[in-house]
Write a structure and sequence with these properties.
Residues 1-30 form the signal peptide. The protein is built from four helices and 24 strands. With 363 residues, the chain is an alpha+beta fold. Among the domains are: 191-282, Roll (Nuclear Transport Factor 2, Chain: A); 283-362. The strands form six sheets. A four-stranded antiparallel beta sheet has the order 1-24-23-22. Residues 1-55 have low confidence and may be disordered.
Amino acid sequence: MNYRINKIRNITFILLIVFALSNMTACQKANNKVPDTVVSKPSTTRDAFHEKTQSENYFDWKNGVKTKDILDYLNVPIEERKKEIESISSVFDKGNTIYLKTKSGNHKASISDKRVETVNHYGRALDRRYTYIHGFLFYDTIENREINVTNIVDLKDYETDHVNGLEVDYCQNKVLISCHSKNVNKDMTTWGTYLETAFPTYLLFDLQDYSYEFIKLSKIVYDKNNADTSADAILIDSNKILISYKDRKVSKCKAIIYDLSIKKVIEEYDLDWNFKIAHRIADCVVSPDGKYLLYHESGQTPVELFLYDIEKRKEYNVVDHETEREEIYTFYNWDSENIFFYGVYSIPMAECMVYMRKLDEVR
């Protein structure tokens, strides 16, 4: 009898120990659980490749994906959604990484595992690291901090308050920013127009080391004997700008490549007058290999998106407003040397689509 009692006691004791250990393990797992708002990284290169492949196959980016379908897939509540035209700001990693905005904040989403995390920035993605917010304000996603150019550069001669519609080009950590002078009434051309309007000043600013320089087109290409000329500049390399020098009287435009490192013109050629790049364009982003430009036409309501082949000197229309769909672009960014993403809004359909394009599909 005593033997049976002792045996029961021993079994009960062992069960209590097992139960206690299982509770401790459960608590430890709960404490180490990865939050749903954090994107977990793949553990191996093979896993990473499999993740990207799944993302590429889930959505047909080539033929376009509705913004609504992306938000549905990520389980973004209807009541949290912004207007479609302002919901998505950039797409990377062949469609796996998406930056989006909701009423509650800014987010980075992963398509492969349907994870969404909150981020501190939202704007026009210049590349994976830098984002243009507005005015002279940028964001560094690696350092996780804002870059306010007005705190670094003396811009007392230029408009910095309530500035909208600044033209900002980007290439290899550098931005070329159009500057609006406060002294346009003081600086006149010999033929009576504003010098800063016909031949504007630009600020070249390095987002990485904060170095900068001002570029005055009036010092490079201003011809006081020709009242019909004007010029604009875009950044095509970290140390090179393309100046479109226009003579309106004869409807001709010349491309002038100016090397900022040696302060000299290194190349000139005729630019097709009908190209948008021959006139005032904005927000040019150079491809990672430096061979192509993505940009839109400057103006109050820019709607069309263009691609320019620097070597072949050809321009292609990516988003054409003059179609039955009446499309206007919503965002654009390079994903790799030969792939870019862009969004379009169709006015008649009242819906947004996101596309991925390879260069050989445009040229």
